[in-house]
Amino acid sequence: MNKQDKILIIGAGLCGSLLALRLAQRGYKIELYESRPDLRKVDISAGRSINLALSDRGLKALRLCGMEKKAKEISIPMYGRFMHDKEGNTFESNYSGREGEYINSISRGDLNAILLDEAEKHENVNIHFNSSCENVDIENTIAHFKDYKSKRKFFVKADVIFGADGAGSALRKSYISERKFLFSYSQNYLNHGYKELEIPADNSGNHQISKSHLHIWPRGDFMLIALPNLDGSFTVTLFLSYNEGEYNFENLTTTEKINEFFEKEFPDALALIPNIKKEFSQNPTGALGTVKCSPWSYLNKTLLIGDAAHAIVPFYGQGMNASFEDVFVFDEILNQELSDWKSVFKAYEKARKKDTDAIADLAIDNFYEMRDHVANPLFKEKRKIEMDLEKTFPNQYFSKYSLVTFNENIVYNEAMKRGRAQDKALLNLIVDDEVHTHLNMTKEELRSILDKVIHETDKILQEDKIAGL
Amino acid sequence: MNKQDKILIIGAGLCGSLLALRLAQRGYKIELYESRPDLRKVDISAGRSINLALSDRGLKALRLCGMEKKAKEISIPMYGRFMHDKEGNTFESNYSGREGEYINSISRGDLNAILLDEAEKHENVNIHFNSSCENVDIENTIAHFKDYKSKRKFFVKADVIFGADGAGSALRKSYISERKFLFSYSQNYLNHGYKELEIPADNSGNHQISKSHLHIWPRGDFMLIALPNLDGSFTVTLFLSYNEGEYNFENLTTTEKINEFFEKEFPDALALIPNIKKEFSQNPTGALGTVKCSPWSYLNKTLLIGDAAHAIVPFYGQGMNASFEDVFVFDEILNQELSDWKSVFKAYEKARKKDTDAIADLAIDNFYEMRDHVANPLFKEKRKIEMDLEKTFPNQYFSKYSLVTFNENIVYNEAMKRGRAQDKALLNLIVDDEVHTHLNMTKEELRSILDKVIHETDKILQEDKIAGL
Fold this sequence. Notes:
The structure is a homodimer.
Chain A: E1 6-10, H1 14-25, E2 29-33, E3 51-54, H2 56-64, H3 68-73, E4 75-78, E5 80-84, E6 90-94, E7 103-107, H4 108-120, E8 125-128, E9 131-137, E10 142-147, E11 153-157, E12 160-163, H5 170-178, E13 184-199, E14 213-218, E15 223-228, E16 234-241, H6 255-265, H7 267-270, H8 276-282, E17 286-294, E18 297-298, E19 302-304, H9 319-335, H10 341-371, H11 377-392, H12 400-405, H13 412-431, H14 443-467
């Protein structure tokens, strides 16, 4: 915990850059290593998660580091979902009934760039690109690298090593291979992969569909989504099974079949994606995996953070937000002024692990919700009631989505427990005909629904607690 | 699916031996490889899971192979739990209110031996000991071995390879390292380890405590259990945290401290374990891990089965039973006469995976139940009611324990869902003062309780279903 400690951070992606910045602001000496070239000089993002949804938990961490304003300047607000059915009919569904609650579409590369710019302003930060970490000698805190250009191998000795090196973390792999302790670890893949496509801007450089929404084409077993970019384009992502159903990534191998699939399922989107043939064949098909593990740290030597500790599927738009919140929580632990890194690492995992487990599970839930439930009449009635409740009782009702996305002071695990119980209560009240919705609900009617939902939610939480003894 | 196919089974433990026997009975040609020496000639079991609980799912599979009677001959029936508190007070709790429902303590080695004896009677089975599988070339179905004695390496080519090689499966490791497909995989350790001790027979060769029970010394954060052996001894197992609490495996390093711990927590047991000093220091501390993975098979070439596919913690006494049931379910799939091994493997995993996931989760539940809940007054009242219900309505009420242990025709996943809902219903009925128990319940009183439990259970299951949309 000496400010003279040499701190090595592996990975200058979103989490690693923000962590480097924050630790530099606190006065630590940081060596930041990144496997790829400097993304501010080379375009390296094609076909992979070009834009992301930035929301309140991420903003909270950016604010801590003085970066909120700069991030918002390069963001596009999305106020809700914009659903497209097969016939081209559309309907909107807000993310919140409250004013001022929205998520932000932001370019991964642009955000990463402003974080690197800011980190570099600190003379106690050195950034090294093209340095791919191959493994870490965790006992001696030595990281082994390979230079991307010269292929030369080298190593760096540090006092403390942070692995912010993403879902394929080299530090995490070293935890597994070195077998110094019992390491609980899981990698779970969905049977769906994803592929990115593009809706370009129109001739005037404007967005061709509403840029104030996250667009969804839900089709039960698969779906298409689109997020707006600043240049008027949309990044479109197809989520589809590798090998199940009539159409899947394994059998969509010819232009005819790809066209047939899009003509049948997404005709309105197809009309907006001129380069579908090239993009479908050239962009990679990405896997959708969840990684959980524990412990995150080894003694007073190393710590996993961000995706390296908890990679999640993208369906709650919380991957980046969770990683940024990691930095926020880690900073809070540092404020406790514990005596050594080991205590800091343990306190951090104790405070954080249940929450990153929760958002991983919530993200899987939302996969089913987005591709399937959003078009379900029961689900739609529930969302209608929730929007009315949030609008009418902005300080008393928060949907699961709001709890997770807009209530950055409620930890993920609490948001999950309360949100799931509330969803269960409301769905069952609707099915049991205990609550009804119509176009113009009076405040008294809504008050009565709110009371029932709160009562049933508390009952469910209480019964679950008793069942757990 | 040709009877002339060369089938290689890695692992001649309980699952591999039974699988070899069953496939031999069906006329297949089997090469069975085992890393250890022939356990019928060498004693190799010291300090590790000496005895196990055999129950109805295991017996069902043994029956299929004509081995039930022989197994029962070397079993000791255990009718319930026998709890010991710190003051030496005891109370019993039956596993079932029905006649003839009990579990069986059996020696792992003895059972393995009779399975090997039976398998060897088939001329289409060849057993090779001292052959440790190092890895499998899954594309070419070649298993690489090392001879335990000569250290010579050799390989075996087969048409189909079954990995019945336990929690540390070499075949499963090859799935991970060969990266031919997206392999979902998890290994999760409890923070508790285990150590085996022994209560020897008395001078006349008799059991010193009731041999008709599984003994438990529940202490909240840790516990001791004991299962009877045929020779009058008990195998005792201590489950204790590695590094948490006042006493743990990391700090129990001196004879004084070990004695102090047992004197304070288990004085009655300590008096029965004369060699505690030697056993505590010499027997290994085992880890308690759960392994889940998917897919279990690769094309028409390889399949994981038993612990290799799904290692679980021992707290439901279902590890061996689940592995034996694997063989039963696999045999049922073979009865469908599908066209090729790939179809068989896929159908088998589709039929089986949700059930092995369920028993893994149930086993974790039971860890908390055994070390903690069994001594809880609310839990005890629930068990009392359940015993009365099972006794009075033997065809209408089945506790979760009965569903899992004695109802071999109800799959684990159904037993888990129904059992958990039923526990939740009953616990909440007790807390809400909707049901009461007293010494001599009339049939009418019990009937009324039964009706309430069934009603509440169905309601819980229905509400869960709606919440899942």
